[in-house]
């Protein structure tokens, strides 16, 4: 039994913006966007986040806003950025957000 | 003595996304983007918001994230969308967010 996710047409921009409006969650999106297959633990490792309970909250926010798919796979949860859905529903939004994160980082 | 606002290069994308990731604050931005001169009271009237204390919080979030200018003018506060700053720092972001809000509304 997997997690509940909103369908593409159930996604709401307020939820997406609120989900992305957090440094850890924004970092997660950048890791996922860079490609490769990730599970929750591997993303935590890349980000150097050690609090699993804090991340449980962040994963739920990202999942329930429609930003990521989170799917059980064996003893792990695979996570994937829902780029197709976000690009289809909100053209240009994700790219603008990712570019903005790079701008801040370079500042 | 006016309010404190971040300079353009002090704006951070997490703060902007978090500020916009709320239905009332997103509605405020849409009103301001539609043009015309607005003070806090006139925006409240357009949105049908009656709780002034709630709005005080929202104005602070919008101001401190760098999304709006809020400037005392007589007994009122003029509010202006910082489109120039946001477009310069994060090209395409504000337009993508406003388009997304229209998409949701049409759904």
Short description:
The first copy, chain A, is an alpha+beta fold and 107 residues long. Chain A is built from six helices and three strands, in the order H-H-E-H-H-E-E-H-H. In chain A, helix 1 runs antiparallel to helix 4.
Could you walk me through the main structural features you see in this protein, from its secondary elements to its overall organization?
Chains A, B: GO terms for molecular function: DNA-binding transcription factor activity. Chains A, B: This is Helix-turn-helix transcriptional regulator. Chains A, B: It comes from Actinomadura rudentiformis. Chains A, B: InterPro entries: ArsR-like_HTH, HTH_ArsR_DNA-bd_dom, WH-like_DNA-bd_sf, WH_DNA-bd_sf. The structure is a homodimer. Chain A is built from 6 helices and 3 strands. Chain A is α+β, with helices and mostly antiparallel strands and about 110 residues long. Chain A has one domain: Arc Repressor Mutant, subunit A, CATH 1.10.10. A 3-stranded antiparallel β-sheet of chain A has the order 1-3-2. Chain A starts with 12 loop residues before the first helix and ends with a helix. At the A-B interface, helix 1 and helix 6 of A face helix 1 and helix 6 of B.
Topology, element by element:
The structure is a homodimer of 107-residue chains.
Chain A: H1 13-20, H2 23-33, E1 38-39, H3 40-47, H4 52-64, E2 68-73, E3 76-81, H5 83-89, H6 93-106
Antiparallel strand pairs in A: 1-3, 2-3
Helix pairs in contact in A: 1-4, 2-3
Proportion of β residues of chain A? 5-15%
* Shape category of chain A: globular
Give a short account of the largest sheet of chain A. Answer: 3 strands, antiparallel
Helix count of chain A equals 6
CATH homology superfamily name of chain A:
Winged helix-like DNA-binding domain superfamily/Winged helix DNA-binding domain
GO molecular function (chains A, B): DNA-binding transcription factor activity
Protein name (chains A, B): Helix-turn-helix transcriptional regulator
InterPro entries (chains A, B): ArsR-like_HTH, HTH_ArsR_DNA-bd_dom, WH-like_DNA-bd_sf, WH_DNA-bd_sf
Domain HTH arsR-type (chains A, B): 5-101
């Amino acid at each position: 039994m997997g997690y509940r996710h909103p369908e593409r047409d159930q996604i709401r921009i307020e939820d997406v913006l609120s989900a992305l409006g957090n440094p850890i969650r924004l970092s997660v999106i950048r890791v996922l966007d860079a490609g490769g297959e990730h599970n929750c633990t591997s993303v935590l490792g890349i980000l150097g986040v050690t609090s699993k309970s804090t991340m449980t909250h962040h994963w739920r926010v990202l999942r329930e806003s429609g930003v990521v798919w989170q799917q059980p796979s064996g003893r792990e949860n695979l996570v994937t950025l829902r780029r197709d859905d976000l690009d289809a529903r909100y053209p240009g939004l994700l790219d603008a957000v990712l570019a903005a994160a790079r701008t801040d980082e370079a500042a």
